[in-house]
Amino acid sequence: MRLLITGANGHLGIRLIRRINETRPSDEVVAIVRSEKAAASLRQEALGADIRVVSYTDSAGISEAGQGAEVIVHLVGIIKESATNSFEMAHEKTSAALVESNLDASHIVTLGILGSDPSSTNRCFASRAAADAILHAGAIPTSVIRVPMVLGPGDYASRALAKNGTSGLALCFRSGSLEQPIYSMDVVDAIMSAVSLVPENRVIELAGPESLTRGALIERAGRLLGNKPKVISLPIALGYSLAWVLEQTSANPPVTRAMLGVLDHDDVIDTGDATNLLGLTLTPLDEVLRNVLSD
Questions:
Q1: Do the domain assignments include residue 173?
Q2: Structural domain contains residue 226
Q3: How many Å apart are CA 205 and CA 284, to the nearest integer?
Q4: By the 8 A CB rule, do 95 and 83 touch?
């Protein structure tokens, strides 16, 4: 099989290509990244992939790079806008470019976010839902896998959780917010399984095996790290106020109101339908935490 992967230089993209190299060595992978810097970084991973530098909104460039691809894996997305990359640019415009590339692929597999809804007041959730709709309206059937917090070795979320787990006092907004984190390799396996599904437009909601409060997750991480952090819950309204101030005073704020809304979303879903469809066995939460906190 020949696969085209966009956003290939992210943590999930690298892990996916490595898994393809290991388990399906005869597959050909074309990896699209948007800059020479990203291409150089990806080459350092020594993966078996044909790396191409193409703007994710360049339909002609995507068409040229993706010739002969049977499946497209679309991994482009953000939860925080920057001065040069808006939600519309990262989500809707990249999806539109993929549709307009008129590739002959039989299936697109893309990652989304749990909570995406076209009527959401959160601009990230609404944008992701709009992007999914663009792909579903295109000629190539698209499987959207919506996931919550992804935990993998060295990832931002894992580092933040480890920091809180080793703290004496762990400050967080709305500690009662429900998290259902999923292991990064389970997401990789889900993508691999989805690639082989009968192509059709579908939305697959997938998460980890446990839903628990943010405070309980921090405490669980602390126990595995030999610590007992005291979790202090701050009002979410305070977080939104601080994010607003940062948006007004910084060209690239570390946190925005939309980002905070995504992180604060209550994730609690039954994963049975998704795991049955994908033939997936989820990694238990304690095993996930041992894998990612020891990194």
A1: no
A2: no
A3: 18
A4: no
Structural contact between residues 234 and 171, judged by C-beta atoms closer than 8 angstroms: yes
Cβ–Cβ under 8 Å, residues 150 and 114: no
Confidence of residue 33 (pLDDT cuts 50, 70, 90): very high
Strand partners, 53: 33
Instruction: Quote the number of domains for the chain.
Output: 1
Residue 53 tokens read as 């530098």
CATH number of the domain bearing residue 72: 3.40.50.720
Name 140's Cβ contacts closer than 8 Å, sequence gap at least 6.
Answer: 72, 99, 103, 105, 106, 107, 108, 199
Q: What is this structure's pTM?
A: 0.95
Domain hosting 98: range is 2-152+181-209+268-282
* CA 12/CA 292 separation, integer angstroms: 14
Task: Report DSSP state, residue 259.
Answer: H
Q: Could you list the beta-strand ranges (E) of 106-201.
A: 107-113, 142-147, 150-151, 169-173, 178-179, 182-183
The residue assigned the tokens 């806008």 is 81
Burial of 203 per CB tally in 10 Å (0-12, 13-18, 19+): middle
As beta bridge partners, residue 29 has 3
CA-only gyration radius of the chain, Å = 19
Report the helix count and the strand count for the chain, using DSSP H and E.
13, 13
For residue 273, what is the enclosing H or E element? helix 272-278
Per-residue model confidence as pLDDT tens digits over 167-204: 999 999 999 999 999 999 999 999 999 999 999 999 99
Residue 272, both tokens: 């049975």
Does the pLDDT at position 128 exceed 90?
yes
280-295 average pLDDT score: 93
Q: What is the pLDDT of residues 248-274, one digit of tens each?
A: 998 889 999 999 999 999 999 999 999
**Assigned domain for 77 exists:** yes
What torsion, rounded to 10 degrees, do the Cα atoms 77, 83, 88, 91 define? Answer: -10
Per-residue tokens: 270: 């039954």
